[in-house]
Write a structure and sequence with these properties.
The protein has four helices and seven strands. The protein is of the alpha+beta class. A five-stranded antiparallel beta sheet has the order 2-5-1-6-7. Strands 3-4 form a two-stranded antiparallel sheet. Strand 6 and strand 7 form a beta hairpin.
């Protein structure tokens, strides 16, 4: 790695462009849903249909947002209210979304319904949906 040849105090135009994109000109968004690997009941049981849920999530995101990527090499842990550490190997479904699609109420309703169904059918306390840098927990019913 070489040292910068830019004079001291002069700002890097690429860094400035990235800062502008991140803060001022955001017109696209990121939406993520996590597909759990284990049933939320006690004792925890591994889900036998995680792949089917991930496929359903990918198809939903494709229809709603034009495409998605599933990340499968994830490991996580969370602490239950009783103090038990629970391991998870979730599938993360992510879509880069045009702003008008991210704000579309019908699309958000369909996403929330999917998350509630996932929550109910896999016995989860909640399912995480992440919009940009904010996490929202969707529960079984509203």
């Amino acid at each position: 790695m070489g040292k910068s040849t830019r004079p001291t105090g002069e700002k890097d135009p690429d860094v400035q462009a990235l800062q502008t994109i991140i803060t001022d000109e955001r017109s696209d968004d990121s939406i993520i849903v996590m597909i759990p690997s284990h049933d939320g009941s006690r004792p925890q049981k591994e889900l036998t249909d995680q792949d089917e849920w991930a496929d359903a999530g990918l198809k939903l995101f494709s229809r709603l947002y034009g495409g998605a990527t599933a990340f499968t090499a994830l490991r996580g842990i969370w602490r239950d209210v009783d103090g038990t550490d629970l391991l998870d190997e979730p599938v993360m479904i992510q879509s880069l979304v045009r702003r008008e699609d991210a704000e579309n109420e019908a699309k958000l309703t369909e996403l929330a319904e999917f998350a509630r169904r996932l929550c109910r059918e896999t016995n989860q306390e909640c399912v995480a949906v992440i919009c940009n840098d904010t996490i929202h927990y969707i529960h079984r019913s509203r």
